[in-house]
Structure formats: structure tokens, C-alpha cells
Specification:
- This protein is of the alpha/beta class and 275 residues long.
- The chain contains 13 helices and seven strands.
- The strands form two sheets. The chain has a five-stranded parallel beta sheet with strand order 5-4-1-6-7, sandwiched between helices. A two-stranded antiparallel sheet has the order 2-3.
Length: 275
């Protein structure tokens, strides 16, 4: 940054020096004598007038274009709202469940009772003790109580940081974006996984479902974010890996990106932020 400022300062000084030389030329040629002296004098006077006028026009055009660029950027996206699971952190319950080595039938049964269940989603809403959610799952498959309890005890192992997450949010922060989190997350896992969320210090705000007892794709949690941080939805882009969550955001006036992978999402976001 300092190097760039120094270069601009040098170019400005060179420009001033060139203008001074051009302006002084008529004085030099005014005292010349000879057959073509008058013509040379008039030519130099023309140059002395043309160069400053041309420089002024160039500067005016540059300022106008720069102003338009800034205005376009300010009228567009100011706020980037991130989901966490499968966007900034890897949420991979299938591989976690496979790590227990269950046979296919047992694997599918436990997947249905735990990760594919309504209870798992309601766990993200919060408002109850962890044991109540576990008991609800055990009630569905009492023959697997010990397995359910062990899977739930270590459930925070489903979540791991994405390698790019800090680099991405830091870059966006440097571009002048305001950054937010809107994520479904249960209290038990959040208490453990928060230490791995190295992106949080770069955020201007965060709404986790368990802390407000609301979950996506319900519109209430989106409105909570907008009201809490006084955000204009037309100035927000919401990034989530689930289409139903993006649909709710879009219905409230936010632009959306369905996250498939980092290069795809980053490219789409860059296009939205580009003036």
C-alpha cells in the first residue's frame, strides 16, 4: 500500500513538472528570432493551452467514472451472510456414522433415528436439555440405546473446519463487505465446535439457531438477523448449501447463492460484488 502511494506521488510530481515546462515554453520561444519564429511561437502557445485542458478533461472523466464505480458498489451488495455447515465448516454425519463400523441395516436404522429425524432438527432449535433429545431418539429404537448415546456424545465430531474459511472471509472483509453468520446449530455441538470457528472474529454478527430458539428455513430466524443488525435485505447475499434455506432468504428480498463447492460459490459471489 505504501509503495502504491509513493508511485502515485512520483507520478503526480512528474505531471506537475511536465505542465510547468509546457507553460514556460511560450516564454522561451517569445524571444527567438528567425524566419519561422512566429509560427513556432504560435504552435508552442497552442500546446501550452491544449495540454493543461486535455489533462483537466482526463482528470474529470476519471473522477466521474470512479464516482460511478463507487456508487454502483455501494448500491449493491454490502452484506454477506454465511451458513456454517457445509459452507464454512464440513458437516459430514454419514462418514462419522460409518466410522462406528455398523452393518448396513444398523447404519440405516441409526441414521433414521438420529440424523434424519425430526428430533435432530429440533435439537438445533434448542430450548431443552440435551438428555431430552437423546431420550426421544432412544424411544424410537430402544434396542440401540447404548449406540445412540455414544453417537450423540461424540456428535461434535461431525463438524470440521474447511481449509479456505478464514482466507475467504478475511478477503471479503478487506474488500469492505460486512459479514454475518446465520446457522442452525445445537447448543451441545456449538459449545464444543465454537473453538474451531476461526472465522468468527471477522464476523460483524452471528445468529445461531439454538441461541434464539428459531431454525431455518423458517422465516423468523432470517427476520431476527435483519432486525438485530439493521440490515436491508436487498443489500444482502445469503450463502447456504440447502435450497429450501436459500428459497426463504430470496422470499425476504435477499440475493442467494446455493453453495455446491468453494470455487463455484466464490465465483458467483465475486460476480455479485463486482461493480
Amino acid at each position: 500500500m505504501k509503495c502504491m502511494k509513493d508511485k502515485k506521488r512520483i507520478l503526480a510530481l512528474l505531471g506537475v513538472g511536465l505542465l510547468l515546462i509546457v507553460c514556460c515554453l511560450p516564454m522561451i520561444f517569445a524571444f527567438r528570432s528567425g524566419e519561422n519564429s512566429q509560427g513556432e511561437f504560435m504552435a508552442v502557445v497552442g500546446i501550452a493551452i491544449f495540454v493543461p485542458v486535455f489533462a483537466y478533461i482526463c482528470m474529470t472523466v476519471y473522477r466521474v467514472l470512479k464516482g460511478r464505480k463507487t456508487q454502483t458498489r455501494e448500491e449493491g451488495i454490502r452484506n454477506v451472510v454465511f451458513d456454517v455447515g457445509n459452507v464454512l465448516m464440513d458437516y459430514n454425519w454419514p462418514d462419522y456414522l460409518k466410522s462406528f463400523g455398523f452393518d448396513k441395516e444398523k447404519y440405516e436404522r441409526l441414521a433414521d433415528v438420529i440424523f434424519r429425524s425430526t428430533t435432530w432438527n429440533e435439537r438445533d432449535r434448542g430450548g431443552k436439555e440435551e438428555e431430552e433429545y437423546i431420550q426421544a431418539m432412544v424411544k424410537e429404537a430402544p434396542e440401540y440405546e447404548s449406540e445412540i448415546r455414544e453417537i450423540m456424545r461424540r456428535s461434535y465430531e461431525c463438524i470440521h473446519p474447511m481449509e479456505y474459511n478464514v482466507t475467504w472471509v478475511r478477503f471479503l472483509k478487506e474488500q469492505g463487505c460486512r459479514l454475518y453468520v446465520l446457522s442452525n446449530f445445537c447448543r451441545y455441538m456449538l459449545d464444543v465446535n465454537r473453538k474451531d470457528m476461526a472465522f468468527l472474529p471477522y464476523m460483524d454478527g452471528a445468529i445461531f439457531s439454538c441461541e434464539v430458539n428459531l431454525i431455518k428455513p423458517g422465516p423468523e430466524i432470517y427476520r431476527k438477523l435483519l432486525e438485530e443488525y439493521r440490515l436491508d435485505p436487498s443489500e444482502c447475499v445469503f450463502i447456504d448449501d440447502r435450497q429450501e434455506n436459500c428459497d426463504t432468504a430470496a422470499s425476504l428480498g435477499m440475493k442467494t447463492i446455493r453453495f455446491e463447492n468453494f470455487p463455484q460459490a466464490a465465483k458467483k459471489l465475486e460476480a455479485m460484488l463486482k461493480p
